[in-house]
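Hey team,

Filing this mostly as a record. A colleague (T.K.) asked me to run one chain through the structure pipeline before their review meeting, and I want the input and output archived in the tracker in case anyone asks later how it was produced. No errors, nothing strange. Just documentation.

Input sequence:
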Amino acid sequence: MTKQQKVLLGILGIFVLFIFHKYFYSPIGLKVSKVKNELATKQAKLTVARERANRLDELKADYELLKGKVEKAEKKLPREKEIPRLLREITSAGRKFKIDISDLEPRTEEAQEYYISHPFEMSLETQYHNLANFLAEIGQLERIFHIRNLSLIPTLESESQKLKGITAGFQLYTYTFKEKVEGK
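Output structure:
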């Protein structure tokens, strides 16, 4: 082989290597790096998904705990007025402690930010200790009750002026949860 043929063969070899690198090796290298990047992204997403899946049992337990707390809170602060049930509870407690409820009159509701208060004007006649036990019984009910403006007037026997009992008047408040209005 002559020197000129060797040079030509060398140039041809370099040209073939250049064409191989430009059209075959380089595009495959780009594809490989692109696939590696996609693989790293998908592995990161998979890791996040696995972490979330591992927390699923914990989140379910938290959900059940919060659900129980909401149910308990709704017994204290219901979404409905439930006036018949409320009247039954009050009259039942009144009968239990020998209280003569002479007046139980609903008043105008008062809306607050998170709840609505439902006041009732109440008058009754009883003995002092029976009133205390009645108020304690109401305070122990599941629902929230609040008493304001309690006034006690002694009731005397007409002839002997001995203490017969007391007449009590007060405002009894109970509450319901105020649903959020959309758009506020």
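Quick notes for T.K.: The mean pLDDT is 85. Residues 3-76 form the longest helix (74 residues).
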